[in-house]
Write a structure and sequence with these properties.
By secondary structure, the chain is mainly alpha-helical. The chain is 58% helix and 0% strand. The chain has 14 helices and no strands. Helix 3 runs antiparallel to helix 8 (155-170) and helix 4 packs across helix 5. The longest helix has 32 residues, at 43-74. 34% of the residues are buried. The model has no long low-confidence stretch (mean pLDDT 94).
Length: 291
């Protein structure tokens, strides 16, 4: 049984599609004027992103329901009750965003978690349809978000805060917006900051994890400015528009590596090590030596 909690993202669906249409027109004009933007010139890529979004409505709804059930179990053991007023909502929004930073960061640092999140980075385009290319298996959230209820955030508010967080991140997936005022970009995630996050350029890898607030990246030293043309996609791109392959290709790659493993250490490395292990370990060692 699904919880009777309003999902802001469902109500935002008409806004999402209207925004895609407006962005398509704006990008078309910008390209006609010679601006270096990618646009919507690959219809198959756009449809793949939309298909991933539709699939995520099913799987993520079930995951969110589980988050709610676990939070409801934790709620009677809460350390405090922040209520459902301003203080409660501030805690819900900031608390979700803080947990999201670590959720997102670990998805980039642990290969088994990356296997879920990689689908969101698999497009070599960058437009609002990319925002809808959502993972189907972000199960790690079940272990992370319910604990907000222990610190006084009501279970239903946890889910709604997560919906608002996702809606905010929709607009940062675009090339139509350049830099915003310095004060805004110092505190909040922006299109410029998130383009960096989607870049496969060496200097952009594993940067700018923040959802609404970019201050977490500044605080935990994962922030990078947009300095050069972003090359979108993966360091090793996948040549497919099939939603099933997009969603599960990295799980299949992990299984292949595990089958070829010759020791327990290799199995652990391929599953729980960083993406690209053991090559990525050598790269990080070289970076540390040059620092």
């Amino acid at each position: 049984m699904l919880p009777d909690v309003p999902d802001p993202t469902v109500y935002a669906i008409p806004f999402f599609f209207l925004s895609l249409w407006v962005e398509w027109r704006v990008l078309k004009r910008q390209r006609a004027r010679g601006k270096d933007v990618l646009g919507y010139d690959d219809a198959k890529d756009t449809w793949a992103s939309l298909s991933m979004g539709v699939g995520s409505l099913v799987t993520v709804t079930l995951i969110n329901a589980t988050v709610y059930w676990v939070a409801t179990w934790v709620w009677p053991h809460r350390l405090l009750d922040l209520g459902e007023g301003v203080v409660g909502w501030i805690a819900a929004m900031i608390g979700w965003d803080f947990v999201y930073y670590w959720h997102h960061r670990w998805e980039h640092e642990v290969r088994f978690l990356w296997a879920s999140h990689v689908s969101h980075h698999s497009s070599q385009k960058y437009n609002l349809s990319t925002a809808l290319r959502q993972p189907w298996t972000p199960w790690i959230g079940i272990l992370m978000y319910p604990w907000l209820s222990l610190f006084g955030v009501a279970p239903w508010m946890i889910l709604v805060a997560g919906g608002f967080n996702l809606i905010y991140q929709f607009w940062v997936h675009t090339e139509t917006i350049d830099r915003l005022p310095r004060w805004f970009e110092y505190v909040f995630n922006s299109a410029s900051h998130h383009r960096v996050h989607h870049g496969s350029n060496g200097r952009y890898l594993d940067k700018n994890y923040g959802g609404i607030l970019i201050v977490w990246d500044r605080l935990f030293r994962t922030f990078e400015e947009e300095r050069e043309r972003v090359v979108f996609g993966l360091t090793k791109n996948i040549a497919t528009y099939n939603p099933l392959r997009i969603a599960f290709h990295e799980y299949a790659a992990i299984a292949r590596d595990v089958r070829r493993s010759k020791s327990v250490r290799e199995v652990i490395g391929y599953v729980l090590g960083p993406p690209g292990w053991p090559h990525s370990v050598a790269v990080e060692r070289d970076r540390a030596a040059r620092a």
